[in-house]
Each structure stands twice: as structure tokens, then as C-alpha cells.
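Support case: S-adenosylmethionine complex. Customer-provided input:
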Amino acid sequence: MTPHQADRPHGSGRPRGTAGPGYTRDDRSGRAPRGGRPPSDPARQAAYEAIAAVHRDDAYANLVLSDILRDMGLSGRDAAFATELTYGTLRALGTLDLIMADAAGRDVARIDPPARDALRLGAYQLLHTRVPSHAAVNQTVDLVRSVAPGAAGFANAVMRTISETTLDDWLQKIAPDYEKDPVANLSVLHNHPQWIIRAFAEALGGDLDDTARLLIEDNQAPTVHLCARPGRADPVELADEVDGQPGAFSPYAVYLNGGSPRELAAIHDGRAHVQDEGSQLVAAALLAAPIEGRDTRWLDLCAGPGGKAGLLGAIAAQRGAEVTAVEIAEHRARLVENATKGMPVTVLPIDGRSVGKDPDLPEEGFDRVLVDAPCTGLGSLRRRPESRWRRQPSDLPALTKLQRELLVAALRAVRPGGLVAYVTCSPHMVETQVTLTEGSRRSGVEADYVDARTLLPPGMPKLGPGPTVQLWPHRHGTDAMFLAVLRRTA
Ligand SMILES: C[S@@+](CC[C@H](N)C(=O)[O-])C[C@H]1O[C@@H](n2cnc3c(N)ncnc32)[C@H](O)[C@@H]1O
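Agent response - structure generated as follows:
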């Protein structure tokens, strides 16, 4: 699973008719049980339902919330408030749970799941929003009464205890001393699991001050970036049209100032797509280095849902090239087809590791190959509020094996003289440098690094010593994309 798999219909992570630990089937709707009181506030009810679905069904917050908002007919300020509450609560979960445990005098694992999620939402309002305390307490007790009627008195007591102390004082109380355990301290202060902080710190050369800056950035709601598709839209004109601004680095990027990109005409008519600026940069980097000889056969080995294929396809149309886009998951392959309509792109719903075995994926058949590998997605935590608490270090072995195999396949698919870009939206060294070294070694293919810094727009700051590049939210305003470019020599 990768965080890119956000197109999965919500709830599909768990078989129908089953419920997550601690939930009964009656909890599954998330709505007030028959005989319970109706919700007093639709935005909070929507946020509660989304948070409960994330924990009960392994749903993705962005998908489940947009379904709930639509079903409840919420828009404008109500929708914005529900979104802030859902995303904020999910991001802050680890620290909220520690505060709740302290206030309740028991581990949160021992609180009934519906009451626990309602309390998390309440604690978030008390500690992170301007909602007046009495309103946060009363609304939360009302919500608990409707989803876990027996726990209303308990919820009242916990909420009142939390409300008596400011967030700063809570953090002071529960965070371990920075001098004794800096990672544990940062984990509580900035709402990230410790293993992720260690991975970030390692990729940032052990600089914990810089790591803290990254953690703070990870807790901000990211700006939505559009990609103005080359040949179809001019970014400056598009920026005017959507009341946004041209991006700082990618020649295709437009930053939205707010509002939902779903409603934009440019998205509907295929002139633009939503794509982080870092993703645009790494995809374009594959095409930036000159190669000798034929340059018409390009391969995207992990294409779903089609963001980078959409950009590669638009440029291929201009340069007379053709893109083969491979995606193993059928429903995601269909998304790639949608994303590349009208472009010279052929979508293959097959395993990218079948290079040399599938006639459509011949060895040495391609001039440029992109491996945007399935990964932990630790580089895009801003966009997926629940993922930092869902991901586990135990996810790494299976992912890195797949990454190595896909890199080996890519190196075999490219012709001598051609280029392979290895990309992850994770800065975890095991997924970046280790995979790269191991995959290149095992491929048996000879290849040299191209300095990836030279393939990015001039003037980009803080790209490190090369030849690989790690982008960062707190340095570049992008997701933490990793990029390595290899030229096959023989
Ligand atoms: C990081 S995502 C790619 C994102 C995509 N390039 C984009 O820009 O929208 C990785 C994708 O690889 C797919 N995948 C996983 N294993 C694969 C395999 N063996 N062959 C082909 N695709 C695979 C996943 O289903 C997922 O869609």
C-alpha cells in the first residue's frame, strides 16, 4: 500500500460487515443510534464520522470526509470547519491521546472507541482552536451521548480536566525532557511518531533543529498545487484564471490560494491536474537530461493514479514521443487512462517487474524510464493526516523489496545511453539510498549517476551535494520527494 492509493473507495480496507477492534457493527454508521439524540452540530458530526471511519474502517480521511460532506449536504464554512477538525484531530492524535490518558487516568486503549474518537475531537477543539471551552465541552458531551450514551458523564469529566490547562502547560507536563530524550520530546511537541522523526533526522544529516522545522511544516495544511499541462495551459494565464500564483520552481506549477480544485474548469477540461510541485519537478527532471539517439519511447513503470504520466504524456505530445504507463492495480490503471486522455500514452495493467517477460516491456526497449516507486509516503504527511499514525516500520521490508525489484526492472528496460529516474515520496534512507545501491547492484546493469541537481530549474536552493536530490516541505514547499537519475552505460 502506498499513500498514493488514495483513490481507494473508503471503507474498502475492511471486509463489509466487520468492524475494527472495539467497534460493534452498530457503531459502523458513526451516526446516532436509534433512540439517541440527533447531532446538535453538523460540522462536528461530520468530523466525528470521518475520524471514526478512519479508525474503524482504515478509511482515508480525504476520501471519506468528502463523501460525508456530500451526503450531509455541507459546504462553505461548515465544510471548512469539519475539514479543519478532521485533519487537525487526526494529525495531532498521538499527543491528544497522551493528554486524554493523563486527564482520564487510564490508557486511551481502555476507552470505548466511539467515545474515544469523540473525545479526541473535543480535545482538539479545546487545545488547538478558538472554540470557547464551554462550547467544546458541551458539544463533545452531546456527541458522546449520541454515540456512546453510557460514557457521557466520563466524557464530561475528561473534557473539563483537559480544559483547565493550556496546551503549552499540557506539553510541559507530558513531554519528556529534550536534553534527556530529544526525539521523544519532539514527538510529543510536534505530533509525529518517534520512528518517523529518527528517519527524518537521519536524512537531514542528524540536524535536530532542522528536523523540528520539518515537523512543524508537516503540521501545516499544504497549499494545493496545480500542474498546467504543457501545450494545453499557460501557467501564468492559468494562475489568473484560478486566482492563484505561478509556482516558485516548476515551470508548470500554479499555487491555489484556496477553494476546492474539483470545481475548476481547467481540471474538468484536462488543461491542468492537481499535483505537488515536487512531483512535477522530479517527473520533468527525467526529460531534462539530453540523450544521444532515439528519444521517443518513454516508460512510466508505476503510473497510478497518473499524475506524473499526465505530465510526461503532455510533454510527449509536444516532442513526438510515446509513453507506456504500467500500473499493476486495475482500478488505478483506469485512473491513469482518465488522467492521460488524448495523450500519446498506452496504459498497461500489468506488473512492472515483468520486463523481459511481457512483449510490451522488452529489455532495452525504452529511452527514458520513470520508477515512481510504491513507498511509505513519509514525504507527504502534510496531505494525509492519518498516515503518520498508520504507517509502521514493519511496512518497510516488503516495500523496499518491491522497490528494488522495480528498479532492477527499470534498469533492464532502458537501452544503453538511456535514463532511469528513481523517485520516492519518502525521504527514508532505506527507501532512497539503500534501495538505490542494492537495486543497481542486483540489476547487473552498468549505469552512472547523472547529477540530478542539474536537471532541476536553476536557482533552486539547498539541493545538497548531489548526485541525488532530496526535496523538503520546509525548504522547498514541496513534498519530500527523492530523485536519483541513472544513465545506462552498457
Ligand atoms: C507512488 S505510486 C505512483 C504515483 C504515480 N506515478 C503518480 O504520479 O500519480 C506507486 C504505484 O505503483 C503501483 N505498483 C505497485 N507495485 C507495482 C508493480 N509491481 N508494477 C506496477 N505498478 C506497481 C501502485 O499500485 C501505485 O499506484
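Confidence is low (pLDDT under 50) at residues 1-38.

Case will auto-close in a few days if no follow-up is received.
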